[in-house]
Amino acid sequence: MKILLVFPRIEHGVITFKDRGSWRTIVSGYPIITLPHIAALTPREHSVKIINENYDPIDFDEDVDLVGITCYTMTAPRVYQIADEFRKRGKTVVLGGYHPTALPEEARQHADSVVMGMADASWPQVIKDFGEGKLKPIYERNHDFDISIVPPLRRDLIKHNPFLGALQTTRGCTNQCEFCAISSFCGNVVMQRPVKAVVEEIKNMPNKLFIFHDPHLTLHRKYAMEIFKEMIRQKIHKGWAANGTSNILGKVDKEFLELARKSGCVEWFVGFESVNQEALNNIKKTHNKVEDFKKMIKRVHDHDMTIQGGIIFGFDEDTPDIFDTTLETINDWDLDVLEVNILTPYPGTPLFDRLERDGRILTRDWSLYNQVNVVFKPKNMTEKELLEGARKVAKEFYSSYNLFKKVSKIMVTTKKFSGIIPAATSVSYRRYYKRDFNF
Ligand code: B12
Question: Rounded to two decimals, what is the model's pTM?
Answer without folding.
Answer: 0.95
